[in-house]
C-alpha cells in the first residue's frame, strides 16, 4: 500500500474543528472471534458520541504501520493469522488536508484475544450473519458521519468482500435433538388434555372492548384492569411527561444507577396510601413477593401458606430455604395447629393473598391477625387484587376489615387496579432497608422506568379522587354473581370483582370459552395447574368500564351456551 499525502481541502469543506486529525490516514482493526466480528478504533482522539465504527485516531497509516499492526496481532495471538485485508475506506477532508481511513481485518477463533497494544477504546460485536453485510455497515457509518455537518466529505469504497446476497440464506434445518423431542412430547400431551396454552395478540388498548388480531372487537372480561385506568389518557399524559424528562430506560439496577425523583415520590405516596413507614417499588408484583419472602425467611424459619396463594408466593417460599407448610384454603384451625407444631422455629411467617385470584373470595384477616399475635408470628399479605378496589379509600382488604395497623408487611402491584406495571412492598422502614440490601430480585434487576412511576402516581391520585370507580365495579360484580347464581352457576364463594363460573372438566371449559368468543365475548378458560383438577372455570373480571347491559349479555350467552 502506498502512503498517501495530505492535499489541500476545497474551500466548500473548510472547517476549524480541531477534533478532526491532520495526517494521511488512520487504521481500524477488525478481528473475528467466537462467531462475531469485533471492531475497534485505534485511538480515542475523535470524541464523537455513538461512534461504534468510526475509524479515527490520526495514525500514520502507511505500509510500515500496517505491517506493524499485523505483527502485533500475530504476537498477541501466538498463532498464525490471515493477513490483514482491506475491507473499506473513508476519505475525510478538513482544513489541514484530505486523508483516507482504512478498515482491515484479521481472523482468529481465540476467545482470549484482545490486543492490548491497540489501546482498545471501544468495542462493538457484529453477529456472524452480518459479516457479508460489512459494506452496508460502512455505508451506515458514512451516513452517520455525513449527518455531523457539511465540513466532512466522505467517500466510501468497498470491494474485497463478496457482494451482499439478494436475500439472507434460509435457516438450516436439523433433526430435533432428544431434549427438543422431550419438550415437543410434553406439549403434545398438554394439547391432548386441553391444557396447551398460546399467546393471543390484540390490536387495541386494554379496555371494556378489545380488538383481536383478526380485527374483530369483543367484550372483554379477561383482564385485571379493575378500575378501567389502563388506557386512561391521564395516565398516558403523566407517562409522556416523564418520558420527555427522564427518557425510557432506567439504565440498570437502582443500587448501581440510582433512581429518579419519581421513584422516590411514588414510594412515599405508596407508604402514605398504605399507612406504613416505608415502601419500595420493584418491576413486577412477582418480584415483590420474591423480595419480601426471601428477605424475611430462610433456613430455620417456617412459612405457612394458604393452599390457593399466588404462584409467586409459592415460588418464593420454595426457594428461600425455610420449612414450608401449606394449610387448606381458609382453614385457619389447621393453620393454628401448624403454628403450635413449629413453635421452635426461629420465625414463623403466615403468608396469604387477601383476594384469591381464581375464586374471588377473601382471607379472614382479623382471624389471621389474632393468630399471629397469639403465636408471635409475622403476617405478610398480598393485596394485589384488593388494592384500589376494596376499602372505603381503596386501600385494600386490610382497610375493609379494619386491620391495617396489624399487618406486618404488605405486598402489592401497580399492574391491576392501578392500570400500569410494577410491584411494591410496604411496611416498617427496617423491612424496606433490608429488601434494598438483601433481596436479590431487587438488587440484581433494572429499575422500573420513571414513566411507569409517573403513571402509577397519577393512578393513586385517581383512586382517591374518583371513588365511584370501585363503587361501580363492586356493584356490577354483585349483579353478576346474583344473576349467575339464579341461572344455576357455581361462583365459588366470590365476594369481589373476580367472579368465576366453575365448569369442571377442562375440555368443556375450553369449548365454552370458544363459544363465547365466537359470539363476541372474551372470557378465557382457566385450567390446572392454575386451579385444582376438575375445577376449570371461566375467570370473569368485572371492571368499572363495564355497563349493566354487558353483565346481562354475558349471563344470557353463558346460560344459552351451557344449555345448548
Write the layout of secondary structure elements.
Layout (H helix, E strand, L loop, with lengths): L25 E8 L2 E6 L21 H15 L7 E10 L2 E11 L15 E5 L6 H13 L31 H15 L16 E3 L5 E4 L12 H14 L7 H4 L3 H14 L3 E5 L2 H12 L5 E5 L4 H9 L3 E5 L4 H10 L6 E6 L11 H10 L3 E5 L14 H4 L8 E5 L9 E5 L1 H10 L1 H4 L6 H16 L2 H19 L11 E7 L1 H13 L2 E2 L2 E2 L9 E6 L6 H16 L1
Parallel strand pairs: 1-4, 7-16, 9-10, 9-11, 11-12, 12-13
Antiparallel strand pairs: 1-2, 2-5, 3-4, 6-7, 8-14, 13-14, 15-18, 17-18
Uncertain segments: 1-63, 77-134, 144-165
> In order across it, which strands form the biggest sheet?
8-14-13-12-11-9-10
| Helix coverage percent | 25-40%
Record field, number of beta strands: 18
How would a textbook summarize the main sheet?
7 strands, mixed
Rounded to an integer, what's the Rg over CA atoms? 31 Å
Distance between the termini: 85 Å
Query: In terms of structural class, how would the helical and strand content be classed?
Result: alpha/beta
Mean pLDDT: 77
Number of helices: 17
**Tell me, what's the shape?**
globular
Which percent band covers the strand fraction?
15-25%
Explain what the structure shows.
This protein has 564 residues and is of the alpha/beta class. The chain contains 17 helices and 18 strands. It has helices at 63-77, 134-146, 178-192, 233-246, 254-257, 261-274, 285-296, 311-319, 332-341, 365-374, 397-400, 429-438, 440-443, 450-465, 468-486, 506-518, 548-563; strands spanning 26-33, 36-41, 85-94, 97-107, 123-127, 209-211, 217-220, 278-282, 302-306, 323-327, 348-353, 378-382, 409-413, 423-427, 498-504, 521-522, 525-526, 536-541. The chain has a 7-stranded mixed β-sheet with strand order 8-14-13-12-11-9-10, sandwiched between helices. Strands 3-4-1-2-5 form a 5-stranded mixed β-sheet, sandwiched between helices. A 3-stranded mixed β-sheet has the order 6-7-16. α11 links the parallel β12 and β13 (409-413). α7 packs parallel to α8. It is globular, with a radius of gyration of 31 Å. The N and C termini lie far apart (85 Å).
Amino acid at each position: 500500500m502506498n502512503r498517501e499525502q495530505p492535499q489541500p481541502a476545497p474551500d466548500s469543506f473548510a472547517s476549524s474543528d480541531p477534533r478532526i486529525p491532520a495526517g494521511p490516514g488512520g487504521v481500524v482493526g477488525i478481528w473475528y472471534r467466537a462467531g462475531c466480528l469485533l471492531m475497534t478504533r485505534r485511538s480515542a482522539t475523535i470524541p464523537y458520541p455513538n461512534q461504534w465504527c468510526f475509524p479515527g485516531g490520526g495514525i500514520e497509516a502507511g505500509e510500515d504501520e500496517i505491517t506493524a499492526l499485523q505483527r502485533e496481532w500475530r504476537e498477541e495471538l501466538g498463532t498464525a493469522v490471515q493477513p490483514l485485508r482491506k475491507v473499506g475506506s473513508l476519505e475525510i477532508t478538513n482544513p489541514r488536508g484530505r486523508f483516507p481511513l482504512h478498515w482491515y481485518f484479521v481472523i482468529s477463533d481465540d476467545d482470549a484475544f484482545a490486543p492490548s497494544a491497540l489501546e482498545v477504546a471501544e468495542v462493538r460485536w457484529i453477529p456472524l450473519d452480518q459479516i457479508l453485510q460489512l459494506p452496508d455497515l460502512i455505508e451506515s457509518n458514512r451516513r452517520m458521519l455525513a449527518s455531523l455537518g457539511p465540513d466532512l466529505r466522505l467517500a466510501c469504497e468497498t470491494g474485497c468482500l463478496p457482494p451482499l446476497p439478494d436475500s439472507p440464506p434460509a435457516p438450516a434445518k436439523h433433526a430435533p435433538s432428544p431434549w427438543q423431542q422431550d419438550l415437543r412430547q410434553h406439549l403434545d400431551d398438554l394439547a391432548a388434555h386441553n391444557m396447551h396454552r398460546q399467546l393471543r395478540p390484540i390490536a387495541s388498548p386494554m379496555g371494556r372492548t378489545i380488538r383481536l388480531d383478526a380485527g374483530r372487537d369483543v367484550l372483554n372480561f379477561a383482564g385485571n384492569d379493575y378500575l378501567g385506568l389502563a388506557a386512561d389518557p391521564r395516565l398516558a399524559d403523566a407517562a409522556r411527561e416523564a418520558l420527555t424528562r427522564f427518557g425510557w430506560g432506567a439504565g440498570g439496577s437502582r443500587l448501581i444507577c440510582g433512581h429518579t425523583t419519581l421513584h422516590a415520590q411514588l414510594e412515599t405516596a405508596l407508604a402514605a396510601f398504605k399507612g406504613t413507614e416505608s415502601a419500595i417499588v420493584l418491576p413486577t408484583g412477582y418480584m415483590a413477593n420474591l423480595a419480601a419472602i426471601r428477605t424475611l425467611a430462610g433456613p430455620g424459619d417456617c412459612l405457612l401458606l394458604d393452599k390457593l396463594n399466588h404462584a409467586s408466593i409459592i415460588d418464593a417460599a420454595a426457594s428461600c430455604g425455610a420449612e414450608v407448610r401449606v394449610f387448606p384454603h381458609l382453614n385457619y384451625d389447621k393453620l393454628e395447629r401448624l403454628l403450635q407444631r413449629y413453635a421452635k422455629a426461629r420465625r414463623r411467617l403466615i403468608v396469604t393473598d387477601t383476594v384469591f385470584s381464581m375464586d374471588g373470595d377473601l382471607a379472614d384477616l382479623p382471624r389471621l391477625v389474632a393468630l399471629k399475635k397469639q403465636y408471635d408470628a409475622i403476617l405478610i399479605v398480598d393485596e394485589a387484587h384488593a388494592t384500589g378496589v376494596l376499602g372505603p379509600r381503596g386501600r385494600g382488604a386490610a382497610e375493609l376489615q379494619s386491620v391495617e395497623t396489624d399487618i406486618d408487611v404488605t405486598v402489592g402491584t401497580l399492574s391491576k387496579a392501578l392500570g400500569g406495571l410494577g410491584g411494591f412492598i410496604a411496611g416498617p422502614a427496617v423491612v424496606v432497608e433490608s429488601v434494598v440490601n438483601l433481596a436479590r430480585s431487587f438488587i440484581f434487576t433494572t429499575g422500573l422506568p420513571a414513566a411507569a412511576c409517573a403513571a402509577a402516581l397519577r393512578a393513586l391520585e385517581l383512586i382517591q379522587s374518583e371513588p365511584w370507580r370501585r363503587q361501580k365495579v363492586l356493584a356490577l360484580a354483585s349483579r353478576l354473581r346474583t344473576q349467575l347464581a339464579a341461572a344455576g352457576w357455581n361462583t365459588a364463594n366470590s365476594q369481589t370483582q373476580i367472579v368465576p363460573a366453575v365448569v369442571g372438566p377442562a375440555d368443556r371449559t375450553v369449548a365454552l370459552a370458544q363459544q363465547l368468543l365466537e359470539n363476541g365475548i372474551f372470557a378465557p378458560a382457566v385450567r390446572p395447574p392454575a386451579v385444582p383438577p376438575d375445577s376449570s372455570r371461566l375467570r370473569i373480571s368485572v371492571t368499572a368500564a363495564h355497563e349493566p347491559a354487558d353483565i346481562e349479555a354475558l349471563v344470557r350467552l353463558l346460560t344459552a351456551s351451557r344449555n345448548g
